[in-house]
Amino acid sequence: MRQTNNCFCIGDIYNAMKPKQAKKVRYQTYFNLLLNTLLDMFEYEGLPDTIPARFLEMILHSKGEVFVGRENEDSPLICAIGSLTGEVDDYSMGTECVAVTSRHSLEGKRNVDIAYGINNKTATPDTLIYWLSHMLGENDLSMQLTSIYARLLPIPKVNDEKEKAMFDELISKLIDGNPNAYASKNAFADLEAIGGDNIFNITDPQQVDKLQYLSRFADDIMKRFYNFYGQPLQTQNKSAQSISDELHGMDSVSFIIPLQMLQCRQELCDNINRIFGLNVSVRFSQPWEIEFRKYVSNDSDGDGVSDSEEAPTDEDAPTDEDAPTDEDAPTDEDAPTDEDAPTDEDAPTDENLYRETDETLTEETEEAEGGEDDDTSD
User: Could you tell me the residue ranges of all domains in the chain?
Assistant: First the structure.
C-alpha cells in the first residue's frame, strides 16, 4: 500500500479491492452522505451534555425510535436503542420500555419513567436512503464501465510471440508519451498489414456521449432525495421547460415529511421536559428554516417579501378614469380653417421680386464705390 506524506492513499485501497468490496464502499459512501444530510436537519436546545444531539438523531434516523431515561436516580440521563415490551395498550403498543447501551440499561413505563420518541408517525427508519444509496452506487458503476468501454483501444493481431513483444513495447511507450519506430526490411508492407483485418476493436469511443445521461440520472436521484426532505430543487433541462408555478409546485409536498418529523421530535421534547423537569426544544436547522420560510411566506427568492406582495395588483392597473376621454380629444374648433391659410395676396409677385433685387444690387454698388474713394484719399 503506497504511503504519501505519512498518510495511506485511499485510491490505492479502492483500486486493490475486489468488485464486491468496491460495491460495498460505493454504497456506504453514498449512505453516509445522505445520512449526514439528514443528521443536520434539526437543532436542539437544552439537552444535557450526556445526550449528544448527533447520537439522538442517528438513533431516530437509523432505528425509527429512541428511549431517553436514567438507569437510577444517580445515573446520567441518556438516549438508547431499545424496544417496547410488557402489556400492550388498545393499539397493540407495549407499555414498558427496555433499552441498553454499553454501560447502562433502561427499564420503565413508556412516557412515565422513560421518554419514548419516534422518527416519524410510522416509527420507522429512513429506509429511502438505503435504496437511493444503492441506485447511486450502481449508476457510478455504469459510468465507470461506460468510460472504459468508450476508450479508443485498437488491438493489433500478430503472428507470433516476437511480434507480440514488439507491439507490446510500442504500445507501452506510446502510453508513456514516447512513440518509437521499429526496424523492418518491408516497412511499407508492414504498415499496410497493420490496418484492415489485422486490427480489431472491443470498444466504441462514440459511446462516450452516454456519460452525460448517466450524470443527469445521478442528479435526478439526488433531486428526489432533497425533494422528499424539504430541500426542493428547481432544476430543468432542455426537454422540459417549466414555468415558475410548476417549479415551485413541489415546495408544499417537500415539507410533508420534515414537518411530520419535527412534530414527532417536539413530542419527544415535551415528554422529556415533563418527566425530567428540563427545558428541551427542537427546531429546523438554518438550511431547512430558510426553505420553510420561503414556503410559508410564498417567497420564492428569499428576499423577505412574498411573491403576492411583489406581484402587481388590480389597484396598480390603470382604471377607466385614467383613460383619455372625449373631452380631451381635439375638436373641430381647434383644427385650422381656410381663413388661416395663406392667400394669393400674401405671395410675392414678380414685380416685387425684381424691385427688391434691383435695390439690393444698387446698395452693394454704392458701398463698393465708397470704399474705393476712401482708399484713394489715404
Answer: 154-201
